[in-house]
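Archive entry: two folds, one per protein. Generate the first.
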Amino acid sequence: MDQNGLYNIPLRVKATDKTPSFEYIPKQGTFNIKGVSIPVDAKAFYNPIFDWLSGFVETQDPNSYFIINISLDFFSPSSIMHLIKIFKKLERFDKATINWYYEDAELLEAGEELSTILHIKFNMIKY
C-alpha cells in the first residue's frame, strides 16, 4: 500500500477512562475526538497520533476540507498542549473547521481561548 493509501483507511483509537477516542473518517474528511483526556503520560498518548497526523498532512491537498469535532468532558493542561500541537498541524488547510462541543461555561471558555490561539475556523456548539 502506498503512503496515500494508508491515510484513506479509517483511524480509530478507543477511549479509556483517562483518554479520549480519536476517529478519522476519510470519506467524510472528519476527525472526531471525544471523552476525557487525563492520561498519566500525555506525551506517550498523543505522540503516535501526532506522528500519524504529520504523515497525513504531507499527503493531503492544502485545499482539502476537514472537520474536527471535539467533545471533551474534561482535559488536563498537558493534554491541551498536545491537542494544540495537533491542531496547529491542521492550520495549513484553509478549509479546516473545528466544531467545539461544550456543556458548561468552563468548556466554552476553553474553546474560545483555543480559537484565539489557532488559525482555524471554530464553531462553538452547546450540547
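Generate the second and append.
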Amino acid sequence: MPQTALKATGADVEDALDHVNVPSYVIDHAGVVRWMNEAGRRIVGDQVGRQFTSVVAPEETRRARELFARKLLGNTAVTDAAVTVVGTGGRHVAVEISSVPLRRGEHVIGVLSSARSPRCSRSRTRIPSST
C-alpha cells in the first residue's frame, strides 16, 4: 500500500511540503485554514486560523463553498477548479486548485489543496458553476 510505503520511509513529509514551491494548504472540517506552506503565504499572506473563503474573490465564494462541501460529504475524490483568489495587496490572482479530502479512518476531517498558475496546467478541468 502506498501509504504504508511513504510512512516506512521515515521522511518528514510535512517539512518537505513546507518548502516545496507549490502553494499548498489544509482546511479543517469547519472551513478554517489550519496549515499553509511558504509558497501559499507568498501569494495570499498567512491565512492560518481564518476561513478559507477570506482569500477567495467575492464572486467565487459560493462556488468555493460548494466544492468544499462536496469534499466533506465524501462525494468527490478530487476536484480541479479554476478559482480567483485575493492576493497580498488586494490583487486578484487566477489559480487552478486541486483538492482532495483528508480522512481519518472513514471520516473526512478536512481538505488538502495545492494551487498552480493556469498557464502551468497541461490539462484544464473546470468544475462548472451551479448557478
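Annotation attached to the second fold: Confidence is low (pLDDT under 50) at residues 121-131. The longest strand covers residues 92-104.
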